[in-house]
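Inverse folding, one chain.
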């Protein structure tokens, strides 16, 4: 990660008698996954270094401190741990406005999506995350369809059993006539090997990480990628407030927009090993023809509408307006 002049100045400004603090970080990813190896661990080390050792941030991957993935947001809110890296989709209904951002036909890659999320948070999500100190919200590169048999047309998707990473992507699968299967990501390779799944929706980063190229033969994109999963780096608000001001400023200097550039760049780059693995396995990488992608968009539109209506009814907000606003925010950051 690049060292900004502001961060360097903050490090020098920390007084010699500054209070030491230990911040325990807990997350779901294994140690070799990008979420740990490329974000959580180096971020923690950077803060420790720039604090002159006054901050210590031990990182516990693979849910080492106990509890399910769905419990991470509650753990940091309740002060059981100080920082977590989690997925909004782990806790359906807790972050409904964030789920809007995960819907199909909105996302345009990790970089544009992550920058747009900063605007989306500022405008729409501060109340939703009022119980947390938000350090970063960021987006993956976006989901492709990884399947055992060729998909050329809308009709080829009907009846397929596809692992869905969350409620938003399940709306897509319902729209095309596939069956959405919810299961932990760690079980995905085994379920594919046993024939319990015909495929999955996932970014190409998961292909190399979970060896999916050995379990499926076809990797399909739809006029680009589909939806995404929003990852959240969250801190306990009381713990953040208890830190000396210089340490809070140091954390701020390595959070939100100061970290978004790195997350967007990194989650774009982590796609390449998966794409390379698929090509090395002589798998098919196929992008649907524009007219077929348009047929799929039309088929999925009613399900997106129903999902937005449900969010609006349960959450008391205009989810369709947020979806349109998020599309405009993503478009702002797309390369011409």
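Residues assigned per position:
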């Amino acid at each position: 990660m690049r060292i900004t002049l502001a961060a360097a100045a903050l490090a020098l400004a920390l007084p010699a008698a500054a209070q030491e603090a230990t911040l325990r970080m807990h997350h779901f990813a294994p140690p070799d996954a990008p979420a740990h190896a490329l974000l959580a661990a180096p971020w923690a080390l950077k803060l420790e270094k720039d604090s002159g050792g006054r901050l210590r941030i031990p990182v516990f991957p693979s849910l080492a401190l106990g509890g399910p993935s769905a419990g991470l947001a509650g753990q940091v809110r309740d002060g059981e741990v100080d920082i977590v890296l989690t997925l909004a989709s782990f806790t359906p209904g807790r972050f409904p406005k964030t789920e809007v951002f995960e819907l199909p036909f909105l996302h345009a890659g990790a970089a544009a999506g992550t920058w747009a999320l900063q605007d989306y948070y500022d405008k729409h999500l501060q109340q939703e995350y009022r119980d947390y100190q938000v350090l970063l919200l960021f987006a993956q590169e976006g989901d492709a369809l990884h399947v055992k048999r060729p998909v050329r047309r809308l009709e080829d998707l009907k009846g397929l059993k596809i692992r869905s990473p969350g409620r938003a992507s399940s709306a897509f699968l319902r729209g095309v006539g596939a069956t959405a299967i919810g299961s932990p990501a760690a079980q995905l390779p085994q379920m594919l090997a046993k024939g319990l799944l015909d495929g999955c929706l996932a970014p190409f980063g998961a292909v190399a990480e979970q060896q999916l190229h050995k379990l499926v033969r076809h990797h399909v994109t739809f006029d680009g990628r589909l939806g995404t999963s929003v990852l959240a780096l969250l801190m306990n608000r009381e713990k953040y407030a208890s830190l000396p001001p210089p340490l809070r400023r140091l954390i701020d200097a390595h959070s939100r927009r100061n970290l978004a550039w790195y997350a967007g760049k990194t989650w774009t780059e982590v796609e390449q090993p998966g794409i390379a693995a698929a090509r090395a396995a002589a798998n098919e990488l196929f992008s649907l023809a524009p007219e077929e992608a348009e047929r799929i968009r039309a088929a999925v539109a009613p399900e997106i509408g129903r999902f937005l209506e449900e969010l609006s009814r349960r959450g008391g907000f205009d989810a369709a307006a947020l979806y349109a606003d998020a599309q405009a925010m993503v478009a702002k950051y797309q390369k011409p």
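The chain has two domains: 18-141+229-269, 144-226+271-333. The radius of gyration is 20 Å.
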